[in-house]
Amino acid sequence: MRRWNYDLVCFFENVEVLCKVFNAGVHGRRHDDRNAHEVQHAAAEHQHQTQAHHGRGGLDLARPCSRDDAPLLNGDKAHAGNGKFAQQHDGKAPAGHLPALDKVTHRRHDEHLVRQRVHELAEICDLVAVAGNVAVGKIRQACGGKDAECPPSRTCEITPNIDLLAANGMRFTQNYAGTAVSAPSRCITFTGLHSGHAYIRGNDEVGSRGNVWSHEAMLADSSLEGQRPLLEGTVTFPRLLQQIGYRTGIVGKWGLGYPGSEGTPNKMGFDFFYGYNCQRQAHTYYPPFLYRNERREYLPDNKLLIPGTKLDEDADPLDEKSYAKYTQKIYSCDLMYDEILKFVEESKDKPFFLAWTTPLPHVPLQAPERWVKHYVEKFGDEEPYLGNKGYFPCRYPRATYAAMISYWDEQIGGLVAKLKELGIYENTVIIFTSDNGPTFNGGSDSSWFDSAKPFKSEYPWGKASIREGGIRVPFIACWEGHIKPGSVSDHICASWDIMPTVCELAGYTDSIRTDGISIVPELLGKKQPKHEYLYWEYPEGGGSKAIRMGKWKGLILNIRKEGEDKMMLFDLEKDLREQKDVAAEYPEVIAQMRAKMNEAHEEPIIKRFEIKKKESDKKYK
Fold this sequence. Notes:
The protein is α/β, with parallel strands linked by helices. It is 27% helix and 14% strand. It has 17 helices and 19 strands. It has helices at 20-23, 36-54, 101-118, 152-158, 160-168, 182-191, 215-220, 237-243, 332-346, 369-379, 397-421, 446-449, 468-471, 498-506, 520-523, 559-562, 587-600; strands at residues 7-15, 123-124, 127-132, 134-139, 170-172, 175-176, 247-253, 272-276, 289-292, 295-298, 352-357, 428-434, 475-478, 487-489, 493-494, 534-538, 544-549, 552-556, 568-571. The longest helix has 25 residues, at 397-421.
């Protein structure tokens, strides 16, 4: 493949609601284009109907959607000019007001459809990459996996633009994240090394630096921000793309090196970075600052509001006005979206790679008012979230979570429209994926949405677990004229396959060290080499290890307390929810798995990432 022929775009997200669509059809046909045209037609039909009813209430897929002219829903007059969302209340519907009787049936129907759709989605936000004329989707915390059960016209109403990516490309039903949480998943993706070889294997705030959990201290001293840095000289695939002439950018969340360290994005192969350096700073969508490359850019219209701040003591939890302080003027994802469009515009005449590591829909529950109103109308009233599971309180938690998903879907449509406007869409590969399964805190309600379906969604089966619900995540690849539209693959793959895949697409021909296998043959309908096994080790939550070999999944939990003697075994062809341990019936499979686990594991350089049975409660810093 000739170098520089393609641009690359990758989406890496914290999606907790965007999973099921991508893993949909766990037992689906290998290349099934059965619904491709139906989905495209339904999305177009919905767009036409929405525009007819609301004027510009539907996203115009023929042009990019900017923050200032974002479509408004339900006649909402709130306007997001210059990134400043005005909080407005018309007083027509008092707080806690229940839907009128003649609307109840319609709302219940809409609620059912949205719940189905949202459990198809599930946290997709922590990684997205865009490059040259190859767009490599998004990696975010996502989860589950079966086909939408509602009609295409209804599913497209929730996430029409993500649906179109699937309709125009290939959807993988057996794709896995690098691990169970975001920072190590990003490390694994960018370095192509699984968690038995990766340098960063868990979230690590490097607490020895000082009071790293104090947001006041971080605001005053940037050296307290951020997570453990990648080592100087780490080989990442963006760095390799730079060597062959690609312009590389990352917009969103980083978490792989605090400010001033050797692990910042500009030192890890990215020409441009905009967003949150620190994952803890991303615990608000109204931050006092973001980063442009190595420097802070302060947002004076936003004031520091410490995550975990509760409602005022005398506040009425059913009154929307009680939650006013959690909405400020500048919504970070508006600014990041503007930078994405600008990066693509500036790179249109050269090969580029863009990683869009949006924090959406990671908690806290904060979303543009117009989208929240849209889902309150569909769901009706609901119990408020009062902040008892961290982050910020929220008057309408389920509606806000769904709003975060649809808002991000709207931006995806705007990016695709921009690529088409610039005449580079056909030469761009787009990859959409996720870095872990659905979350369990901050007011999110993965069980209500059934976010990991068909896997279990509740804690400890989703995010922060290496059970299927925590690591089986969406993956879509779209490349017009090359990837068969509406195709479905059951190829078993993982995020460490992204590095060799992107390198092959971009024309990087030198040898690289990776645990991955390029999936370009699968994308192009050719014979695809397969992994002998996939391996995970996760040092948090007591320590766990897992291995996938064909239909078999081996799992060892709570290693620091119980050791590694007990390995569970599940037949995923019969038992997707990992309910029946058949280890006693297949000792020869267990023996093979143990041998492969030993082969895959290297002792970590960082002591806190060791997973061994402990004789004491010593904690590593």
